[in-house]
Amino acid sequence: xxxxxxxxxxxxxxxxxxxxxxxxxxxxxxxxxxxxxxxxxxxxxxxxxxxxxxxxxxxxxxxxxxxxxxxxxxxxxxxxxxxxxxxxxxxxxxxxxxxxxxxxxxxxxxxxxxxxxxxxxxxxxxxxxxxxxxxxxxxxxxxxxxxxxxxxxxxxxxxxxxxxxxxxxxxxxxxxxxxxxxxxxxxxxxxxxxxxxxxxxxxxxxxx
Length: 208
What we know:
Blueprint lengths: L2 H16 L3 E6 L5 H11 L3 E6 L1 H10 L13 E6 L3 H14 L4 E7 L2 E3 L1 H8 L4 H43 L37
Antiparallel strand pairs: 1-3, 1-4, 2-3, 4-5
Helix pairs in contact: 1-3, 4-5
């Protein structure tokens, strides 16, 4: 490869690293062309899987400001440039390796931080972004429903009280004037004591 071609290849690889949120280095020795195509299709929604040259990849990673992973760039190397969910890519590589043991994960980078092969496997065991968002949305919906119920309860109680007052006012308009129902029946006035009559018995006559 002439210098111009190498320069262009390095620039293309560096751009791919910059445009990716993560990258996973793999060894594909022993995989057939058909199997590589199958892996690319499996990762297509979240990553681009490309066979690369180790020396050019090491230069491209330095140019992109990424950690030096030269010690992992040995043997036939292919890189999964992650453009979607890194967890889904890690899961896809793990699942593919279960049925195609020739695929070996060697490590990678995530948000500019180096990842070991073990950390990539750990990443594969995490929940996907979609699952986490769905759980968060479910929790938020439940919280909003509880809050709505709390707000609705006093309103419903007030509505019932208002309806009861309206019915009471219809039966007894005095309620709206601050009254407490129909006026009580008038009590009879207390009887006055009769005046004492003078003693009318005649005084005894004097003896004649």
